[in-house]
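Researcher: I'm preparing a figure for a lab meeting and need a structural model of a single chain. I don't have an experimental structure, so a prediction will have to do for now. The sequence is pasted below. Please return the structure as C-alpha cells so I can convert it later.
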Amino acid sequence: MSKYANAEWRGTGKEGKGTLTTETRFVQNTPFTYATRFGEAKDGTNPEELIAAAHAGCFSMKLSFVLNAEGFTADLIETKCDITLADGAISKSHLAVKAKIPGISKEKFEACAKDAKENCPISKSLKSSISISMEATLM
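Model: Understood. Here is the structure written out cell by cell.
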C-alpha cells in the first residue's frame, strides 16, 4: 500500500504561503503558513497537526482491532494526540484516549491500549525517534 499527499509552497519561510492536498482530496488545497504552524492563526493547518491526526486515527483503529481480537467492541473511542515540536524537531507524541467498551475491565482495557500504542503503524514509525506517552480512561 502506498498513499500520498502534495504540498506547494510559494515565497519565503516566514511570509510565504502553501497548500496541502491529500490523495483522497479530503484535504484539498488546505492553506498552511508560518502563522498556522508557529503562531495562533486558525485558518489552515500545519504538518504537526496532520501528524497528530494521523497518530490519533491510527491508534484508535488499532485499538479497535486489538479489542475485537479480545472479544470486545467499543461503543466509542476518542483519542486526542498532542505533538510537541521543540528545537526544530518533533520530540513527543502524547495520546489521551477515552473509551466506552461494554464488559471490559480496567486492566484489560489498559493492556489493549498499551498494545495499540506500541503496535499501530504510526507509533512504530515514530518510536525510534520520539517519546510516545499515553493516558487511557474508560468512560
